[in-house]
Amino acid sequence: MNTQWFNQVLQAIAIATGAGKDKIILIVLDQARWHTSKTLEIPEGILLEILAHRCCILSNLTQEISALTNYHWWPDPEQLGEDNDLSA
Question: Could you tell me how far CA 79 lies from the centroid of its own chain?
């Protein structure tokens, strides 16, 4: 992952959700370098909320958050094993 790729992800989210002046999408992120880069291109209607360093709240509340939002927890590739390809 890098800032250029994350910029494309943010743009895709904005388009897919219809984010803009009249529709705000809040995305909660950790402090990964590409989430906090000064060269991020944040589309209109997208707000980024960066969690405190080493915040463990999300990992403890994944089921509760999923039930209330469009929250998605990316799988850990190491736990998926060799038979699973995340690029497909």
Answer: 20
Domain ranges of the chain: 3-80
For the chain, the straight-line distance linking the first and the last C-alpha, in angstroms and rounded, comes to 16
Q: What number of H helices and E strands is found in the chain? A: 4, 2
14-54 pLDDT tens trace: 999 999 999 999 998 888 888 889 999 999 999 999 887 66
pTM of the model: 0.63
Q: For 71-82, give the DSSP string.
A: ------HHHH-T
Contact 45, 20 (CB under 8 A): yes
